[in-house]
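Collaboration report, partner site 2.

Our partner group contributed sequences for two proteins of shared interest, and the home lab folded both. The records are reproduced in the order in which they were received, starting with the first partner submission.
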Amino acid sequence: MIAAVQFRNFKALRSTGVKLAPFNLVLGPNGSGKTSVIQALLRLRTLAALPASAEPPPDTGGPRIDFAFAAPYQEIGVSLGCSADEMVCNVLTVNRPPGAAGEALWEELRARLRTIRAYLFDHYAMAAPGKTEERYELVSNGGNLAAVLLHWRDHQPAAFAALQAEFVRQMPEFGGLDLRDGAAGTVELGGRLKVNGHEFIAAENLSQGTLYLLAMLVLVFSPAPPAVVCLEEADRGMHPRTLREVRDALYRLSYPRDAGMERAPVQVIATTHSPYLLDQFREHPEEVILASKQGPAATLERLSDRADIMELMKETHLGDLWYTGILGGVPGE
């Protein structure tokens, strides 16, 4: 949905921009702007819920973020004006086609923008019993995972069954998931082992990676997913040998029809520091965005825009090219 984003004087992103694909893996050193991209999208979401300005404010050269969109919203441009002192974007300017048709198109787009979500999972929060009256959309740290799964089991059985089947396929030591009533209106999540009489393993005793996998599968199999999902540290807690499964799970969000799913695609922006996850995108360098930093300024570059990338990949693994610094986007440049 979001075709491109351009930054000016926004934190480390002084003068750079990048085109966005349906799926985007963003990598680079700390402080190179990966999280700033996600913060810009979240600010766009927030301001899209408020009245927009028809006239741009005077251009003082301060921080600014410009967004372009894919069809059918390609005639709409959105700019965020930011305070230079506090680096807070608080002015939304919309350039749209005139008349009722342009207004209707903007209203449709802003409704989608308000569904942008960002996640950085916390396994301690996810392991805690969930309150059954909590909202049934996964929160940013995954802390209501048990409540979401309980709601799915009772009200979205097809989605719950699909998630459980994929979980068991990837974690074959388990026979399924279990949700049990806890104290004071809570629900406790756990897994049932295939052996030992289907022993119940409570969420607090599940591994970090197991809980992250469950949260990721909630995003993948959600009956009504967001238009855009931002996932920080997509490989967090995962063994390198499982990263192809992580990639394929996230691909189901962006390319649902390839997985036999009948729903709208979800645009994904995922960050990583893992050369092993990067290796999974050897055949798709157009989905990789490299963040590089020179002094205080950072730039964003789509890997497929490099003229030498195909030749370089003939010599070694893509992850090794990045890790050794050949591609750039590493600390100490």
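Second partner submission, folded after the first:
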Amino acid sequence: MAMRRSVARVVGALIVPSISAAAIAYFGYHALWGERGWTALMSTRGRLAAERQQLDELRDGRAHLERRIDLVRRGDPDILQELRRQQLLGAGEVAVPRSAK
């Protein structure tokens, strides 16, 4: 009878700590490797940095094109000559001027 009481006391004393340890392990696992855990956060930050870099490149390209369009609208002779050359020559072709005879 005394043995049962001591076993019951030990089991009773271990129930609360074991439930607490299980809860800590469960929430700790999901805090690190869960769907919204630390590893997911790091992965999302990496993707966000890559997307921001791509956005910056697209913005730079757009600004370059807007400057060229503005030059065409103003009738800048250099840009107009460059556009004419591109339209007359195919890709990879080179214009070689003839020497005056």
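Feedback sent to the partner group on the second submission included the following. The chain has a mean pLDDT of 89. The two ends are 126 Å apart (CA to CA).
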